[in-house]
Design brief:
Elements: E1 2-4, E2 9-11, E3 20-21, E4 30-31, E5 36-37, E6 47-48, E7 53-54, E8 64-65, E9 70-71, E10 80-81, E11 86-87, E12 100-101, E13 106-107, E14 118-119, E15 124-125, H1 138-141, H2 146-150, E16 152-157, E17 160-165, E18 167-168, E19 173-174, E20 183-184, E21 189-190, E22 203-204, E23 209-210, E24 221-222, E25 249-250, E26 259-260, E27 265-266, E28 276-277
Antiparallel strand pairs: 1-2, 3-4, 5-6, 7-8, 9-10, 11-12, 13-14, 15-18, 16-17, 19-20, 21-22, 23-24, 25-26, 27-28
Length: 286
């Protein structure tokens, strides 16, 4: 190899080929390392693979798009898989933050997903970013999943606010398959248990009680004196107009049905809690 100073050319040599680099004094061209590329001939160094692309293997001539389900920082030779709990349907992701959290109501149980794995199981609340269809409540079991702890919503249980996380469906509610929001049991019903799966898990208000609120896990209180609240009647108010105690009967607070006045007593009015003693000169039989 000879340098011609008049023509400013090197004679007897050859240009460094694409995919290679040739620093000063090179005798034999060198392949670009993984994570770099050389698109042009006669390069003295290889270019860094840009973020959002991969330069796989040795001797890359062009970067290729980062595959879906992965992210590729600068100098990537291979894509990094989006972790479980996330997915990425698009190419060219650059950082792990470009991986999308699994949507509410679904789960992403493996790495490198292009879409969620499926719906969360019935009986569970899934607020997003989950790797399992049956999440454990982090506040009960002390999991170290800080992301799950940070992801929460506020609901109403027994007319009071409550903060809930992904986990078993909360009391007073039910969660069909794919639930990102728990469904409250309607007034007149309650659900004292977690893991509710459907509206069938909302039980009628207990007899003698009324259940006034959405999302109830327990009765609001006893039915008022002078009224009765039958079993399985889904009573919502303490003085239900259709179950006022009839004449000839008495209904203490919390009654499931009217009680007939005993012998020697009577009650001529409706909506009464006690019977009256039979007056002198009269006989009162049940």
């Amino acid at each position: 190899t000879v340098y011609n100073s008049i023509l400013d050319l090197v004679t007897g040599g050859y240009q460094c080929p694409v995919g290679h680099f040739c620093p000063a004094g090179t005798v034999v061209e060198r392949q670009c390392l993984p994570g770099t590329f050389a698109p042009d001939p006669a390069q003295g160094s290889c270019d860094f693979c840009p973020a959002g692309y991969v330069c796989s293997g040795y001797g890359s001539t062009q970067p290729t798009p980062c595959p879906a389900g992965h992210y590729c920082p600068a100098l990537s030779a291979v894509g990094q898989p989006c972790p479980a709990g996330t997915f990425s349907p698009l190419q060219f992701a650059e950082e792990q933050s470009d991986c999308q959290p699994c949507p509410a109501g679904s789960y992403c149980n493996t790495n490198a997903l292009l879409e969620p794995s499926g719906n969360c199981s019935a009986g569970y609340l899934c607020l997003g970013g989950l790797a399992t269809p049956t999440p454990i409540d982090p506040t009960v079991f002390g999991t170290s999943n800080s992301a799950q702890l940070a992801n929460n919503i506020t609901i109403t249980v027994n007319n009071a606010t409550a903060v809930v996380h992904s986990g078993p469906c909360p009391v007073g509610h039910y969660c069909p398959e794919g639930s990102g929001v728990p469904q409250p049991c309607p007034p007149g019903t309650i659900n004292p248990y977690r893991y509710g799966r459907s509206a069938l898990d909302c039980q009628p208000c207990p007899g003698g009680q009324f259940c006034a609120y959405l999302g109830g896990s327990e009765a609001t209180g006893p039915c008022a004196a002078g009224f009765y609240c039958p079993v399985s009647n889904q009573t919502q108010v303490p003085e239900p107009g259709d179950t006022a105690c009839p004449a000839g009967y008495f209904c203490p607070a919390g009654s499931t049905g009217p009680w007939p006045c005993p012998d020697g007593q009577y009650q001529p009015h409706t909506g009464r809690a006690v019977c009256l003693d039979c007056p002198a000169g009269f006989a009162c039989q049940a």
